[in-house]
Amino acid sequence: MSDLIDDAPEGLNAPEFSVSEISGAIKRVIEGEFGHVRIRGEVGRVSRPRSGHIYLDLKDDRAVISGVVWKGVAARLTTLPEEGMEVVATGRVTTFAGQSKYQMVIDDIKPAGVGALMAMLEKRKALLEAEGLFAADRKKKLPYLPEIIGVVTSPSGAVIRDILHRLRDRFPRKVLIWPVAVQGAKCAPEVARAIAGFNALSPGGALPRPDLLIVARGGGSIEDLWGFNEEVVARAAAASEIPLISAVGHETDTTLIDHVADRRAPTPSAAAEMAVPVRLELLAWLEGQGGRLAQGLTGALAQRGQRLRDLSRALPRAETLVEGPRQRLDTWGDRLPVALERGVARRRVTLSECAGALQVSALRRMLTNEQRRLDHLAARLAPALERGVARKSEQLAGLRISTRAVEKDISYQKERLERAFSRITDAGARQVGELRTRLEATDRLRETLGYRATLARGYAVVRGDAGLVTSKAAAEQATGLEIEFADGRLKLGSGKPARGKSPRKPPEQGSLF
């Protein structure tokens, strides 16, 4: 500034400067006086454009200073600034000539003590709780025995060794480790990417998808555990489709991921205990259940066996059950021959009565009557047809009808008459034939049922003075006997011939007609 004043033209009290000269002079003065400063204040407006830089305001109750965090510095920050957060910013004060203002280029920014961190944590917690990320109904149930367990932690710390050792003691399972930084600026984005990466794996792929996730870290200060309080980690845990156990810090340490996770474990070892049951306890329980099953089966079989024996004592003996039916069978067996003989005799009498009712003369008379009736109908048919034709001719004579139509109708009616006469003749012949067939069948039945057929089989009919002889005593008392064989009769003794009726000679075939 003094150089510019010295170079002023002589005679003028107020030197002239260009805008750029005065802006540059101010910039050099400010940067020379405030090249490295630490400012404590509250973060006001925060802007994060796509360029990656962060623009913010540092304020207290009386003044406001604009600040900027360049993209490269922002990527290295442990804690990103948020509105309302009390921080200590380290950097240099400079000017921005384009807007005639001064601002602070921030190289580092940290919360201004534990109180500020806790206030910011409570603010985030209230925000996430208002969105429902802490709700109990959205928490998923842990699998009872997962096949594969994914662990998000540092691969070189004691945490992973404790988890593997505890899993090996309780129930060995396959473990996939996703190495991440568990503190510092890289902690939050790496943990969020690990949770999303495990969820992106496809079940049954080359790298199988875990059935359960454990996010673990050992104890530390609130600054060391701050990466697990970041909003990006909490939202990644809430979006996880795989059940997740949070095991960050010791039992007294609480982070945002603990509220969002499906289950919180006080220590990493406790998370391993939550993940799998004790194999020996399961084997003991299985053996106990097997013993109970065997005991239950044995008791049930014994109880049912005793019940069966009790029921068997109440049942009668097999011999007692069959005594009654056996006696009834014997009685019916004794009665069966007599009943059969009686049934045969009864049916034989019925047959004889039916055979006696069959008279050849009655059948001949019936056939003659039917023949006469048919002849009478045939004799009446021709005059009736003639009268009908005459009547129709008279009606036709009174009408003026075409001769061709009349002739056609006469021809049609004549054909109908011939067909009707043919059907009547055929019906009469069929009826006569059926009657003849029935008569012949009845005559054959008579011959079959008559006693002459019996004589042909070697039997004989004995007649005495009073008729048929059916016993030895009657034969001894008779003065003379006549024996009829199939081929004739033979007289024995000097008695008179018996007056029994000789069987009527059956008519010869065809003698009825």
TrEMBL record:
GO MF annotations in UniProt: exodeoxyribonuclease VII activity; nucleic acid binding
Name of the protein described by the UniProt record: Exodeoxyribonuclease 7 large subunit
UniProt lineage: Bacteria, Pseudomonadati, Pseudomonadota, Alphaproteobacteria, Rhodobacterales
Chain intervals for the UniProt region annotation (Disordered): 491-513
Summary of the function given for this chain in its UniProt record: Bidirectionally degrades single-stranded DNA into large acid-insoluble oligonucleotides, which are then degraded further into small acid-soluble oligonucleotides.
Main location (coarse class): cytoplasm
CC per GO annotation: cytoplasm; exodeoxyribonuclease VII complex
Boundaries of every OB-fold nucleic acid binding domain copy: 17-109
Statement: the UniProt record of this protein carries the keyword Cytoplasm: yes
Location relative to the cell: Cytoplasm
Segments forming domain Exonuclease VII large subunit C-terminal: 133-398
Highest taxon in the source lineage: Bacteria
Gene (name only): xseA
Catalysed reaction, written as an equation: Exonucleolytic cleavage in either 5'- to 3'- or 3'- to 5'-direction to yield nucleoside 5'-phosphates
Pfam families xref list: Exonuc_VII_L, tRNA_anti_2
Keyword annotations from UniProtKB, A to Z: Cytoplasm, Exonuclease, Hydrolase, Nuclease
Similarity section: Belongs to the XseA family.
Organism: Marinovum algicola
UniProt EC number: 3.1.11.6
